[in-house]
Amino acid sequence: MQVFGVDIGGTGIKGAPVDIDEGTLAAPRFRLPTPQPAQPAAITKTVAEVVAHFGWTGPVGAAFPTVIKGGVARTAANIDPSWVGTDVAATLGSVLPGGVVVINDADAAGVAEMAFGAGRDVGGVVVMTTFGTGIGTAVFLHGQLVPNTELGHLEIGGHDAETKASEAAREREDLSWEKWAKRVTRYLSALEALLWPDLIIIGGGASRKADRFLDRLEVGTKIVPAQLQNEAGIVGAALFAGASDQTRPKVTARSPRRRPPATRPPGGRRP
Are 102 and 235 found together in one domain? Predict the structure, then answer.
């Protein structure tokens, strides 16, 4: 089964049809620069152009760099503030005939890595971190996503972590890999102290250069690079949309699906 995945980032919007049974792109991805300012009308137009490049009319999953609740953007750290309070799903859906499901971008990358990449078959607590324009995080417990964690905004040393430890910060300050690795170590150590994960997956644009800094990280938790690298957001968005399409209840307002009454055994616990 194929579903289209689009990854909306701070610098680029990229997409491709995805074989969600294999977790692979069904065609080479197509990328356009993120318009500046990254306001709803401009982003929507660019997303439509990326999807139209493939002549796609089916379902679309969109990875978006904000907290997403019920399809609505609640934050705007790396995108225009005008998105806050905007129904992203409805806005993008107005130009996508097959419909769209929206997910936080780091969550999308994590979903892909847990299904087909470095987190596959890993139990316990897994943290996916994406280092790019900002720092995104996705947290999983026994394979289940805890959505919208946004731990890239932890305050460390009086600063929002992503302003000092993102890949964009490394490039902006022209940091050596050694200096940047020290900042990343400090950040990951804070995550480690909070969550005690069993595995940390490094993703985002930095994952393509993992050989330059991974060995420099001094953290007790096992750390591995993302296997899907910068395609994880596209694949994860498509996976999420495919699952949503298959599991969404087919009901109407006149016939709501009702849950059976809860029953409890004599001990008082739910079965």
Answer: yes
